[in-house]
Design a protein that fits this description.
Length: 147
């Protein structure tokens, strides 16, 4: 049993909007994300000229709610762990040494899940087969969540 979940940027945004999927944490535990997933969320919300799947979600809420969510993204709640590359740099290098062939974002997610003993949870629209395959090789659970 894992200690919690490692969520991608899409699920993190839903959580910050107060819409955590019920099936995300059936047994409680920690919620964490990676630096790159956090950065991708910040980048998506920082530039109002760019319209993507995450920024579009804020278009569905009132301006006050959108401002509140952006403030929460800027000052991420302490209840959401953010794993530092200080802790993950070496384990990421070891994964590459052992044959992992992932992009940097997926490599960080795999290392973070191992570090935290957490299950990786990605939005269904963000399905990542190479990450899922590498996680299986390392006995790490991955779930795609419909949001």
């Amino acid at each position: 049993m894992s200690n919690g979940v490692l969520v991608d940027d899409h699920i993190l945004l839903r959580m910050l909007l107060g819409e955590e999927p019920r099936e995300l944490r059936p047994r409680g535990g920690i919620v964490a994300t990676t630096g790159l997933w956090y950065h991708r969320l910040c980048r998506a919300l920082a530039d109002q000229a760019v319209v993507g799947s995450m920024s579009r979600q804020l278009g569905d809420v009132s301006p006050g709610v959108a401002a509140s969510v952006i403030a929460t993204v800027i000052e991420l709640p302490a209840s959401i762990e953010l794993v530092s590359l200080r802790a993950l740099g070496w384990p990421m290098g070891e994964l590459i040494r052992d044959g992992a062939r992932l992009n940097l974002l997926s490599l960080e997610a795999l290392a973070a899940a191992r570090f935290l003993d957490a299950e990786i949870c990605c939005a269904q629209a963000n399905e990542n087969e190479p990450l899922m395959e590498a996680a299986r090789k390392h006995a790490i659970s991955v779930r795609n969540i419909q949001i």
